[in-house]
Amino acid sequence: MSQDMKRILEALLFAAESPLSLAQLCQVLETKEQASVQQALTELQQEYQQMQRSFELVPVAGGWSLRTRTEHAYWLRRLRRQQVTRLSQAALETLAIVAYKQPVLKAEIEQIRGVEVGGILRMLMEKGLIKVAGRKDLPGRPLVYATTKRFLEVFDLKDLKDLPTVEEMESLAEGEQTLADKAPTLPLAEPRPSLEDLAELPLAAMSEPPADPDYETEPETEPGPEPEYEPEPEPEPEPEPQPA
What we know:
Strand content: 5-15%
Distance between the termini: 151 Å
Order of helices and strands: HHHEEHHEHHEEHHHH
Shape: extended
Structural class: mainly alpha
Number of strands: 5
Number of helices: 11
Helix content: 40-55%
Largest sheet: 3 strands, antiparallel
Low-confidence stretches: 183-223
């Protein structure tokens, strides 16, 4: 494979703002030999992996794209001063329904989720993750929704066939449950006695502390004879004054 073709491909992928398909690359290179272009892309991908560069060449959204590695995402966010945009649980559930059942009606999504999803659909369209894919041949001609190419790019999918199957998700859930079952358990603390339990205890048990084997008490001694009590002498009365 000529180095000139690989350099040209590298420049095109570096300058592109979105993934480039094999047909687009062949059109720019003015060649119909898709096999040779595919081989050059594979060689570039292997070279980047061997050099352990901070970026990689990946097939995504039906094309090829140069992407920074995920382990450097923290530093890129610091450079752009951007915070991570996270989808809510409701948005992820709606997006998953669209991805697996597309093209899908709004009413079908609401039937599955049991809530109104108009606002969530608008938000997902604003983010470019879903789109209106047409109208269904039903009374009222309702809109149907589908995922976009941006959806594949964000979730790093080559195409919709790369979505995990139901069996894969079930096995993943079983694996997580197995890990949770194997986790060590801590001994539970003894429950504190309730007021009813204390009321049933005898007075001696409530007043005397429980015996502690690690605590040494002084041996009890027999009480000695009580000291004799000597009354104090009464004071003598003062003499009465004599008349002059």
